[in-house]
Amino acid sequence: MTLARLTGVTKTFGDVTALDSVDLTIEPGTLVGMLGPNGAGKTTLLGLVQGLRAPSSGTVELFGADPRDWRARRRLGSTPQETALPPTLRVGEVIDFVAGHFPDPVPRDELAAEFGLTDLLRRQTGALSGGQKRRVSVALAFVSRPRLVLLDEPTTGLDVEARHALWEAVRRQHERGATVVVTSHYLEEIEALARRVVVIDSGRVLIDDDVASVRDRVGLRMLTLRTADAADTATIAALPQIVDSRAGADGATTFYTDDADAAIRAIVGSGADFHDLTIRGATLEEAFLTLTAKAHS
Questions:
Q1: 44, 75, 122, 159: most buried by Cβ count inside 10 Å?
Q2: 252 and 163 in a common domain
Q3: Residues above pLDDT 90, as percent of the chain
Q4: pLDDT in the model for residue 110
Q5: Which residue range forms the structural domain that includes residue 238?
Q6: What is the C-alpha to C-alpha distance for residues 186 and 106, in angstroms, rounded to an integer?
């Protein structure tokens, strides 16, 4: 059964259109990364799936029912962008309180161990750092053993080590059966976690595909090389086969092209003095930036 479905969904706030005729389905067993700039509509979309808002037009289903019906939300876990925890309660008390709303919650000590919270169980949440509060908030999304989990910017405020540890915990939860939707500003996070990528901009779904296909559909190849001098770099940058270039901190220059074979032939034919040529495809970040730039052109 489809876990969540949006069909022709538009959501407006006064004169602002946050979502514009969005069609989207979330199937069991997927780990979906949702990308988009600030204001793209990602949080609004998750809010509709959670039943926090109603669409202006179109339909939203959660487990085949209206998400505003509390019974549809019993198998849903979520972490909002903003973390709000009762400041005087201990972490263990918060976990127990949330767990008490569900028939078969994850035991407190098991959940704490999974998300690195064991040493924090007796700490009041008001005394936690922003990153620690974020880890508690993400852990609470999984306390009910949900079938679908929505994580909105889950690693905001975490350092690199804590972020990677949280990724591992989310992967383990996914392997145990949770379907997960993650929004993030960290493109490496989506690349590390997701198998399916949904790119949203200006309230529209620009692309919905697997990570490799998102890169491939952009079609960019990156040629990184070193030149003898600035004149040779300028000669290569001016070739019609080169669509963009970027100087690296290590003295190399990366040239972007949609036809690597033709670009290499043109570089050789230009007479420019170059060496240390490497070729690779675009990263997810470069693909994302290209896709959103095309949407506004």
A1: 44
A2: no
A3: 68
A4: 97
A5: 220-281
A6: 29
Residue 103 within a domain: yes
Question: Order of strands across the sheet with 179-183?
Answer: 76-79, 148-152, 179-183, 31-35, 196-201, 204-210
The answer to whether 211 and 291 are in contact (CB under 8 A) is: no
Other residues' Cβ atoms within 10 Å of the Cβ of residue 121:
17
Half-sphere exposure of 226 (CA within 13 A, CB side): 7
Measured CA distances, 79 to 134, 151, 152, 183, 233 (Å): 9, 5, 6, 10, 48
87-106 pLDDT, tens digit each: 999 999 999 999 999 999 99
Give the pairing type, strands 4-13 and 31-35: unpaired
Q: Token pair of 236, please?
A: 């290569």
Q: How many residues does the chain have?
A: 297
Q: Is 262 left (phi over 0), alpha (psi -120 to 50) or beta?
A: alpha
Angle CA 6–9–13, to nearest 5: 135
* CA–centroid distance for 197 within its chain: 8
Q: Same domain, yes or no, for 59 and 184?
A: yes
pTM of the model: 0.78
pLDDT digits (tens, 9 = 90+) for 2-29: 999 999 999 999 999 999 999 999 999 9
CATH number at residue 232: 3.30.70.100
Give the pLDDT of residue 294. Answer: 60
- Residue 163 reports pLDDT greater than 70: yes
Q: How far apart are CA 263 and CA 13, in angstroms?
A: 47
Show the tokens assigned to 77: 């876990």
CB atoms within 10 A of CB 122: 9
| DSSP state at residue 241 | T
Instruction: Look at residue 85 in the predicted model and tell me its pLDDT.
Output: 92
